[in-house]
């Protein structure tokens, strides 16, 4: 007589199912843009209660942060081993990206979070997530969800980054970029599109820019600290008889057809930006060779802004940057250096072959300086400038 199979309880079936989910790789791109449907059951006992930190947690690029989340559960009735912990990132109001999931001893991180995310494990009821080597893309809102067999609860944690917002447009001129092109431009300059919250915080810190730019959510806005007619109107009288500034908002625009500038955001600079003044100012091509001779590359716009804001780089001399613009950072304003306010001054996009400047270089962490002090540019074998008759392409670094 054949023996009947042993009865399998619903908890065991549920645990096996989620164990298989942890072990089976997800199809490429399956998590990004996934729409999440939340089912609400009437009469739910609500025995799972999730608590997250109010407000936000703050880190910086390259840092380590804990996204706090704790839950209360009637362990005497069910036990913690049958609880699933899941972290997701909110990328749209109804779209989530999987970050991390755990069921008992089985755990898995997804996508760009692999090798960087793990549970804190600070006793029973702790679902906090440790995130290492924080990137610019980690900025945003995260959901901590705790589920048992029939009940669940979730809480939200916002991860903010210390950094700086900077306006940007390419050599082609203002109002030339679609939303996707603005995303690409920020990435090329060591940044990401800023959020509306980041732009508002920058406005409170004094950012004044009278050109509209894309933000991460697809809206177009610009900050005005000093209200004036060409920048959205003079505003209404404020306290003390002044005029109100504010963040002007064009709303959500057609991201494939309409064109604007961009507001980018960057954070902590892992390396160092420094100004290099050759024996004689150089064109853009010579600037790249000058930085290479010092174990560096020509700095990007975002790197210069980060060095100005976070490393207090102050230099009243214009220099080339990687996008072909010429700029200089001012921490302590003085009249001869562009006016009464701190900031990164821009000379636009000079002729890359004819205009001559120094250069701002960026050296990555740990990169050696092959030419420590006392180096400039010239021609091996001697010779003078001869009225500029020598070919700059033949320049080599020489000790001076």
Explain this structure to me?
- The chain is α+β, with helices and mostly antiparallel strands.
- Helix content is 14%, strand content 31%.
- The chain has helices spanning 10-23, 75-78, 179-188, 196-204, 284-292, 301-310; strands at residues 34-35, 49-52, 56-59, 65-67, 69-72, 84-92, 95-103, 106-109, 117-119, 129-131, 140-147, 152-161, 163-168, 192-193, 213-214, 219-224, 246-252, 261-267, 272-276, 297-298, 319-320, 326-330, 343-346, 358-363, 375-378, 396-399.
- The strands form six sheets. Strands 1, 3, 6, 7, 8, 11 and 12 form a seven-stranded mixed sheet that branches.
- The longest helix has 14 residues, at 10-23.
- The model is unreliable at 1-46, 236-242 and 374-400 (pLDDT under 50).
N- to C-terminal distance: 98 Å
Uncertain runs are 1-46, 236-242, 374-400
Mean pLDDT: 81
Described by strand count, sense and barrel closure, the largest sheet is: 7 strands, mixed
**What's the helical proportion of residues?**
10-25%
Number of strands: 26
Any idea what the shape is? globular
Number of helices: 6
Derived from helix and strand composition plus strand pairing, the structural class reads alpha+beta
Percent of residues in beta strands: 25-35%
Rg over alpha carbons: 27 Å
How is the secondary structure organized here?
Elements: H1 10-23, E1 34-35, E2 49-52, E3 56-59, E4 65-67, E5 69-72, H2 75-78, E6 84-92, E7 95-103, E8 106-109, E9 117-119, E10 129-131, E11 140-147, E12 152-161, E13 163-168, H3 179-188, E14 192-193, H4 196-204, E15 213-214, E16 219-224, E17 246-252, E18 261-267, E19 272-276, H5 284-292, E20 297-298, H6 301-310, E21 319-320, E22 326-330, E23 343-346, E24 358-363, E25 375-378, E26 396-399
Parallel strand pairs: 3-12, 15-18, 21-24
Antiparallel strand pairs: 1-7, 2-5, 4-10, 6-7, 6-11, 7-8, 9-10, 11-12, 13-18, 14-18, 15-16, 16-17, 19-24, 20-24, 21-22, 22-23, 25-26
């Amino acid at each position: 007589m054949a023996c009947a199979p042993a009865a399998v309880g619903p908890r065991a079936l549920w645990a096996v199912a989620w164990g298989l989910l942890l072990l089976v790789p997800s199809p490429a791109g399956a998590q990004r843009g996934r729409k999440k449907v939340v089912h609400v059951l009437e009469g739910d006992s609500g025995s799972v209660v999730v608590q997250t930190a109010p407000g936000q947690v703050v880190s910086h690029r390259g840092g380590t942060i804990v996204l706090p989340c704790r839950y209360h559960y009637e362990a005497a009735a069910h036990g913690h081993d049958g609880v699933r912990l899941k972290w997701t990132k909110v990328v749209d109001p109804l779209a989530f990206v999987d970050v991390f999931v755990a069921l008992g001893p089985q755990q898995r991180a997804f996508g760009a979070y692999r090798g960087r995310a793990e549970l804190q494990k600070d006793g029973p009821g702790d679902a906090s997530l440790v995130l290492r080597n924080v990137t610019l893309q980690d900025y945003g809102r995260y959901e901590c969800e705790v589920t048992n067999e029939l009940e669940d609860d979730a809480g939200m944690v916002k991860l903010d980054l210390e950094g700086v917002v900077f306006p940007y447009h390419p050599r082609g001129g203002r109002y030339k970029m679609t939303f996707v092109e603005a995303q690409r431009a920020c990435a090329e300059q060591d940044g990401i599109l800023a959020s509306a919250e980041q732009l508002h915080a920058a406005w409170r810190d004094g950012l004044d820019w009278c050109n509209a730019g894309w933000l991460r959510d697809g809206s177009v806005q610009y900050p005005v600290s000093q209200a004036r007619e060409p920048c959205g109107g003079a505003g209404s009288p404020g306290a003390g008889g002044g005029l109100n500034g504010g963040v002007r908002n064009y709303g959500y625009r057609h991201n494939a057809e309409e064109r604007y500038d961009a507001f980018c955001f960057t954070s902590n600079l892992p390396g160092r930006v420094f100004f290099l003044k050759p024996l004689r100012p150089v064109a853009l091509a010579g600037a790249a060779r000058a930085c290479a001779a010092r174990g560096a590359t020509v700095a990007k716009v975002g790197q210069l802004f980060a060095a100005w804001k976070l490393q207090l780089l102050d230099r009243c001399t214009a220099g080339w940057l990687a996008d072909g613009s010429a700029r200089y950072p001012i921490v302590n304003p003085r009249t001869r250096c562009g006016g009464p306010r701190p900031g990164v001054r821009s000379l636009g996009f000079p002729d890359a072959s004819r205009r001559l400047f120094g250069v701002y270089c960026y050296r990555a962490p740990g990169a050696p300086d092959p030419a420590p002090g006392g180096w400039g540019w010239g021609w091996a074998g001697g010779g003078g400038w001869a009225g500029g008759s020598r070919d700059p392409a033949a320049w080599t670094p020489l000790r001076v």
